[in-house]
Amino acid sequence: MPARTNHSESRPSDVELYYRMGADPHVAKLAFEELYHRFGPGVYRYCYRVIGNQRMAEDVFQETFINFYESARGERVMINVEAYLLRIARNLSLNAKKSKHNDTLPIEQFDPPADEFSYERKETDQLVVAALDSLPADYREALVLREYNGLSYSEISNVVGASVATVRIRIFRAKRKLRGMLTPYLTDLLDHD
Amino acid sequence: MGERFNISPAEMLHLYLDGELEPFLETGLFHSVAEDHELRAELREMLAVRSVFHRDSVGLYPPNRLTQSLMAAIAPETAVGSGNARRRGGIPLLLQRSALPLLTALLASLLTALLLWPDNPSQQYLREYSGGGILNSIIAHGATPADSRNDNIAKAIPGDTTKTENKPAINNISRQAISSGNHYSEAYRKAQSDRPAREKSHSTTNNSGSADHVASENMLTDRAAADSVPAMARIIPAPLHSVARKFTPPSFSPATPSRSLPPVSIVTDTSDPTERFVLQLRGINDKSFPAPRVEQGAPNWLDDVGLGLFYAPSEHHRFGIEAGRETFSQIFGDTEGTRRVRYEQNPTTWWIAAAYRFDPGDIGLPFGIRPFVQASAGVSPIGGIGQGSIGLAYLPERRVEFFGGIDGGILLYQLGSTIYSTRKAGWTIGTSLKF
Predict the structure, then answer these.
(1) Number of CB pairs, chain A paired with chain B, less than 8 A apart
(2) Residue B376: its pLDDT value, please?
(3) Are A139 and A174 in contact (CB under 8 A)?
(4) Which of A49, A148, A193 sits opposite B51 (nearest CB)?
(5) Mean pLDDT throughout A33-57?
(6) Which residues of chain A have a CB within 8 Å of the CB of B48?
(7) Is B55 on the interface with A (CB under 8 A)?
(8) Could you state, in order of their start, the residue ranges of all structural domains in chain B?
(9) How confident is the model at residue A120 (pLDDT cuts 50, 70, 90)?
(10) Which of B48, B66, B67 sits opposite A186 (nearest CB)?
């Protein structure tokens, strides 16, 4: 898979920046800052939405970039920096969640807050995000990578280590489950949009 | 992708929304959507859900503190040859970022101590060159420098066998300075005319009393003789506290700085331009030292509280104005005749100050706790005031901060030609809100 972010000729590519991180410390730091600027928000969104716990997500996020920085001192062949970062984040997330059982709520137990003012957009948004959090981990991860990180199915398959067909099915089922949970509230959402 | 030929219209719809549908299948999907009401409803709903995801995604951004912490961990000066990046930061980072402010504070403290510490040669120098202060007056009238204001009061007290009973009378320049602006001088002069007899009486009856006590009683006797002398706060004994509380401190105009400070260049952090102002409320539990021996006036619920409004050009720097109300114990000595007396009062006063706060950011302490140092300089109705505090702050949320630390302050006030100071130290706790 080709690198996603080869922005322009005047701007170093992600891969170039990655290799610069293995050079002089000051150059390495500048390269790291640029890569952090490019991919930090996406990795943070992934950690935050996949883990669902802010403190744990921040720990994983920080650990991800530290591991990423240290990895540049090895002899690694880099093809796609973003996918590599997300793979690190994914592995760390899985490790972090080992101690956190029942991280998903069974769909039948999904009970959105009964709020008479939930017609407001903000609260409807929270409802949708709560439904996302209640999805099974595999489905949620695939959907987050698609909707929050904007990855293609192929790129998602690269990150999660599954086939494109599997990714496609996960995303489809995730959306169907979301729709099933949100049907009573989607009318309000449509009214606001 | 042969399997895609067998997918349902609903799945085709989702593929299309994700940009994954093969182009040659799009026409079939459009026909299905046009004919199927349920499919159109699903399309609308999924677009709405997607817009929610988009809004949520835009709001999710790594907090500044997380970025700062990460960059500190990746700092090149610690990264080279180090095997464990996550342990970088901590005390070395704090020292690195705080070196300049701490050095400035240290130099300022040393300078202040040199100038204002009692018995300091610099202070004597100031007195001598401040227009003829108390020290000059004493020397000019025959007293030796050893008898000057900071000697034991008892040396000048009649009745003490070791003291200077036969010293010539010393002028009352300082006394007049204290009493200027009211009727004290005239009344006191009247009282002075009766002094010899009373002093003689004291010299025979009060040999065992403490120096302060004797001085105070002499003063009281003088005041009693002069009916129109206003009540004035002074030293022990305790029964006199009610008198002390009635005393109104003389007002002084704070000195105006002769020139402004040079402009300070601050690198502005533009990563979060939305919240640049900080409202800060803190409690100040400082105690004067030496500790006051007279009570303060009626307490007010605003006592020992500081309210500040700051502008934060970056995450590390804040500039603003802080105002508060505190009690400052004032102790100043004087020479009356051959005796040295000491006045004491404990007034509560307002102050307003320009404040600067430095925060080195997240240095790797647990729970994101970060140190800070704050300094301020301003005025009060009594005189100039300077304050400083250093402590730790905890941010449960990026806009809210709880902090606590140690606090110190100094009040400078002029009496006659002499500059006095009152020092305070203690702790402070408070909270701030960014907006």
Answers:
(1) 108
(2) 92
(3) yes
(4) A193
(5) 87
(6) 186, 189-190, 193
(7) yes
(8) 2-59, 153-230, 267-434
(9) low
(10) B48
Give the pLDDT of residue B423. Answer: 84
Out of A80-89, A175-184, B232-241, pick the least confident. Answer: B232-241
In this predicted structure, what is the pLDDT of residue B143?
39
Do you know the residue count of chain A? 193
Which pLDDT value is given to residue B194?
53
- Start-end ranges of CATH 1.10.1740.10 in chain A? 1-103
B151 close to B340: Cβ distance less than 8 angstroms:
yes
Task: With beta carbons less than 8 A apart as the criterion, state whether B66 and A61 touch.
Answer: yes
Q: Is the pLDDT reported for residue A8 higher than 60?
A: no
The closest CB to that of B48, out of A48, A146, A189, belongs to: A189
**Residue B426 phi/psi, 5° resolution?**
175, -145
**pLDDT of B405:** 92
pLDDT value, residue B297:
59
Whether the pLDDT of residue A14 is over 80: the answer is yes
Contact between residue B40 and residue B60 where contact means Cβ atoms under 8 Å apart = no
Q: What is the pLDDT of residue B113?
A: 64
A17 interaction partners in chain B (CB closer than 8 Å): none
Scanning every residue of chain A, which has its alpha carbon at the shortest distance from the alpha carbon of B9?
A172
One-letter amino acid at B209 equals: G
Task: Kindly determine whether residue A146 and residue B18, on different chains, have CB atoms separated by under 8 Å.
Answer: yes
Helix/strand/coil for B435: coil
Q: Does domain B267-434 have CATH number 2.60.40.3200?
A: no
In 3D, which of B331, B249, B236, B343 has the Cα closest to residue B290? Answer: B331
The angle at the Cα of A146, spanning A126 to A161, to the nearest 5 degrees, equals: 125
Question: Does the structural domain A1-103 have CATH classification 3.80.10.10?
Answer: no
The distance of A24 to chain B (nearest Cα, Å) reads 9
What is the spatial distance between Cα B283 and Cα B303, in angstroms, rounded to a whole number? 9
Q: What is the pLDDT of residue A28?
A: 83
Q: Judge: B11–A147 Cβ closer than 8 Å, yes or no.
A: no
Fold of A104-193: Arc Repressor Mutant, subunit A (1.10.10)
Task: Write down the pLDDT at residue A182.
Answer: 81
* Residues of B in Cβ contact (< 8 Å) with A175: 14, 46, 49
Residues (pLDDT < 50) of chain B are 1-4, 76-89, 122, 125-126, 128-188, 197-237, 240, 243-244, 247-248, 250-271
C-beta separation of B407 from B242 below 8 A = no
Please tell me the distance in Å from A29's CA to the nearest CA on chain B: 6
AA identity, residue B53? F
Task: Considering chain A, tell me which residue range(s) the CATH 1.10.10.10 domain(s) occupy.
Answer: 104-193
Q: Say if B48 is an interface residue toward chain A (CB within 8 Å).
A: yes
ipTM metric: 0.78
Would you state the pLDDT for residue A109?
Answer: 43
C-beta atoms surrounding A71 within 10 Å: 16
Backbone phi and psi for residue B403, each to the nearest 5 degrees, phi listed first: -145, 160
